[in-house]
Structure formats: structure tokens, C-alpha cells
């Protein structure tokens, strides 16, 4: 690699190249049609083409590549969940991030710097002990730490001793990290396109043609295409697209708002999060402090931003790290999250036989990009849902077999 | 600050209100529709009828709001006798 890089740099006839080819014409039919050109859909296409040898794949994206929640999330990668099923699944996700740059030959800037979640109450400490024990049982790096250790791990934290939000301790998750979201999507897109996967941007799915309990055709604004299998992975619009396919999902849409500050010198070398303050901070490689994530308190499918949420997030951030009080905000945005009742995703079978779901990713989807792609590709290729995905089936709601992860998220809901 | 028109107290800041979620059509008492009632609430990209509560006066009322534009179309006190607007 270094030698080829040197030769490339010294070449006189340097030709810039695009990572993905321009949108081709739609063919009449594809073995697999993936609805949604975000991280999850692209990862599924990558695994279909590279692991399972299925290359007759079309990705249909209404907007531009990875421009929805893949572009709007706050890039936390972690596995410190509450239930055994979730930890097993997200742990595989973290391990795929660890080798992703190498696997894809594309620098996704994965920085495994550890996530520190603060507890400001005894109730939070109790839930941390539960999560730490489950994490250790499942073989992840996680431990409950006391206030002194919190200060050692992150000296900038306002401990607020004697105050209303005194830091009692923390949940230290060394496996936690962050990656460059665009690079993850583009890495998968580039490698999938090399194998012949077609990426159709600005192609909106308007409906489905069905025969019995199977989807036969996908209707788009560029024409109708026959599909052997369909994967739905459309982020905030999952509820609406499922209705186009003729069934309902247990999803409510809420905007999640986040923001970044102007760039600062590197000072925050962990992912810092507070369950009680509903605020988390991460410093990007550019030096900007990413501050997330406040959900609007009521259902909405508009990505408008509100001053209230900015104010609440800023209050939390300034409380946790007081020297941010004079720092200016650079950008703010919102994304539509498809929230499920138990804060866990919906993966696997739908009421239709050849229509697969990768939905309900709410505020927790980015970390699962590689593992959801890998396991959904396996599902589509074999026609069987792997064991690791079975707890997340849509049918769990009929059986009241929920996978409750409400307490394992720092975003406010 | 967004303003919500409470049927009892008039226009107030939205921070004075609690969101109680969409009005659900299915019956909770009917075993056949229980799953839909609990887990499958309406989630339209468009007009949604939903419950709100003005917290300080404990006024529970209904609102019609467009989830695409975040525009509140109307608010009203439910008629307790009307099964349609106040299902069990």
C-alpha cells in the first residue's frame, strides 16, 4: 500500500476518479432491490456482492447517497446495552467497525476512544451496574467507575460536588468509539459498485406491485422494475414505505436534533454522555464538538430545527463542560427517527415473503450499519433469519416479547 | 417558542403542555385489537389527531396537527359522551 500510494502521488498523468459511477439507466429486473441508499442499505449491498456473490442488486435512493440519517446522526459506536440479545448484536457491530477501514480499503476514521456515561443519581448507577454486568458476561469491555475515576478519565467534566447534578460515577465502555459517517457509507458504496451493484440516486419508490404474499415489482418515478427480493431500509420514512407495501409498522416518527460548535483544539478524547442531562458530546477529528441529541416531544416528520432544543442541549453541554460557555455554534440540524416502542430495531421478516425489513433504527442506527448490513445480506441470500436477528423480529410485538433498551440511550425521548 | 391554543386557557407556550400521543382508534378491551392499540399508533405524514394536556390546569384536550408542517389546525375539548372522540 505505501509504495503504490507513493507511485500514485508522483504520477504526472494524475487522473481524479469518482468513488461510485454515475446513476445508470434502470434495468427491467433485479435479483435484489434495496430501498434506501443510506449506510444500512449500502452495507447490505456490500455484503451481498462480496460475501454471497449476489451482484444483480439495485439500490434506490430518493435523495442523494447517504443524505438522510446516515448524514445526520452523531456517529457513536458502542455496545453497552441492557439486554443479552442487544449486546450480542451490537458487539458484532463494534468488532466490524474495528476492521472496517482495512476490510474496505477506505479510511472510515474509526477512533475507539471509549465512551464515558455519567450518572447523576443512584437510580442511574443501578442501571449502570446492570449494563456493566451484562456487558462483562457478553465479553465486552465495560465497567462501573466511581467519581474519582471519572475525573481521571475525563478531567474536563464538571463534577458539581454538592450540587444538583453531582457526578456519582460513570459507565466506562472502552469499546466505544466514533467513525466518519460519510466515509462508512461511501466505503460500502464504492466496494459494492465495483462488484456491479447499481446505485440509483434521485429515484423515488412510489409503490409496490404484489402477487399474493410476494412483491413482484417496485414502482419508481423512473419506471417499474421487477424484483426477486426487496430490502426496506429507509430510516425516518420506514413507517410510510411499509404502508406503500401494504402493512403497518409499530413506528412513530420524531425529529432528533443535534449541533456542532466551532472547531477547538483537541481536548475531549472520550465520548462523553449523560443520561440525566439527555446530552452527549464528542469532539470530531476537525475539532468541532458534536452535541446531541434532543428529540422533539411530539410526533413530526419535518426536519425543521427549534430554538428550544438548542437551548436544552446547550444547557446540558455547558453544565457538563463549563468552559464551552463562550463557544459559538457552527451548524445545527435534525433527522427523522423511526422510533419503536421498545427502542430496539425491527429486522427480518415482514408480512410479505420476499420483502425484508431493516427498520426501526430510531436514534441508534449508525453503530449497527455494518452488522445490520452483514446480517440482512445473510438473511436475503439464504432466505433464513440468522439467530442473532431473531429477537428483533416484527412479530415480537404480537407476543409481547419486547427487547427493552429505553434505558440504554442518552438521547432524550 | 411555539404557541398551542388550549381550549380552556387560550394560547400558551408549548412548554406548558404535555404530549399524550395520538388518538388511537382500536379498543384496548378487545383482545383482537390490543396489540394494534398498544404498539401500532397512527403515524401519518399529514394530519394527526392527538391528546395534549395543559399541565398547570390539568386540561386534557384533543388537537389536530399536520406532522409535515407542524401546524396546529384546531384544538378542542373532547365530548365525553361521544364514543368517537373519547374511546375507552
Q: What can you tell me about this protein's structure?
A:
The complex is a heterodimer of chains A (413) and B (88). With 413 residues, chain A is α/β, with parallel strands linked by helices. Chain A has 11 helices and 18 strands. Chain A has helices at 2-10, 39-50, 69-72, 84-98, 100-104, 122-137, 147-153, 181-194, 238-244, 307-320, 369-382; strands at 29-35, 57-60, 76-77, 115-119, 143-146, 169-173, 177-178, 198-200, 205-211, 214-220, 223-232, 252-263, 271-274, 279-283, 288-295, 329-339, 346-349, 355-359. In chain A, helix 2 (39-50) packs across helix 11. The longest helix of chain A is centred in the first third of the chain and has 16 residues, at 122-137. The N and C termini of chain A lie far apart (46 Å). Chain B has 88 residues and is mostly beta strands. Chain B has one domain (3-76): Folate-binding superfamily (Folate-binding fold, 2-Layer Sandwich), CATH 3.30.2270.10. In chain B, strand 1 (3-6) and strand 2 (10-13) form a beta hairpin. The longest helix of chain B is centred in the middle third of the chain and has 9 residues, at 31-39. In chain B, 14% of the residues are buried.
